[in-house]
Design brief:
The chain is about 0% helix and about 55% strand. The protein is mainly beta. A hairpin with a 2-residue loop joins strand 11 and strand 12.
Length: about 250
């Protein structure tokens, strides 16, 4: 293995469903074609009783709003789901404990592979059997571990601020296009300047992913205590590949 990178910051909205969780909430690998890499995560629970967990691998994608959609393995062009090998397909986690779980990634020995591929490992709590007859409702928890696999030395950057607009009186929205071949993450800020050019407020850009060859819209809430007047919003948006995207928007707060 020449190069392995694990990052710990991506957490899907359902990654702490019910009383189970994952640490780290995502895995990112940078590997060579033909290489196999194995890493461990920790599954956590604060429940008293033990849980039976089922493990499956699926494709996933994000729409422009950041909502997750899942698909059968191998459905997407940049799928890594068929490269992922969880160590077990079902197991029991003891109540109130953490348990290590290994996931291996085997990248095909294919020189045409480039950029980032991705898949999702889902852990689903299997409801215990019940002896109660009649109609009822069974609830369960499902958590997802996003896995990104980047082919070493094939990364190509590129990003564009596609749009910057005011969707309604309480929000500003910007749209970012990822024109590179790896997943990128956002950072930076949006400065709200008054007519004198003074920065009166600063909005922190959230740490969200933008998939390769896709666009992402990010809505930023204006401060609740923003004073009435005319403002210029200066967007200073950073991507994780050292790019800086700059744009401005004039708006009025009544």
């Amino acid at each position: 293995m020449k190069y392995l990178l694990i990052l710990f910051s991506f957490l899907l909205a359902f990654a702490h469903a019910a009383d189970i969780g994952i640490s780290p909430p995502r895995l990112e690998f940078v590997v060579e074609p033909g290489e196999t890499v194995t890493e461990s995560i920790t599954l956590l629970t604060d429940a008293i009783q033990e849980h039976q967990l089922q493990v499956i691998v699926e494709d996933f994608t994000l729409d422009p709003k950041g909502d997750v959609a899942t698909l059968p393995p191998g459905s997407l062009e940049f799928s890594a789901s068929n490269w992922l090998q969880p160590e077990l397909t079902d197991f029991v986690i003891a109540g109130g404990e953490g348990q290590e779980f290994r996931i291996s990634v085997t990248v095909p020995d294919d020189a045409s592979l480039e950029g980032t591929y991705h898949g999702m490992v889902f852990f689903t709590v299997v409801p215990p059997p019940t002896e109660t007859s009649g109609i009822g409702v069974v609830t369960t928890a499902r958590i997802g571990l996003a896995v990104y696999v980047t082919i070493a030395s094939s990364e190509q950057g590129g990003s564009e601020l596609v749009d910057f607009f005011q969707e309604d009186d309480g929000n500003l929205t910007f749209a970012i296009a990822n024109t590179g071949n790896t997943v990128m993450r956002l950072a930076g800020r949006i400065e709200l300047r008054n007519e004198a050019g003074e920065t009166k407020y600063a909005l922190e850009v959230p740490d969200v992913p933008v998939m390769r060859d896709s666009e992402r819209e990010v809505m930023m809430e204006l401060p609740e205590d923003i004073e009435p007047g005319f403002y210029t919003a200066l967007a200073l948006i950073e991507d994780s590949r050292s790019g800086l995207l700059v744009g401005d928007l004039s708006f009025e707060v009544e």
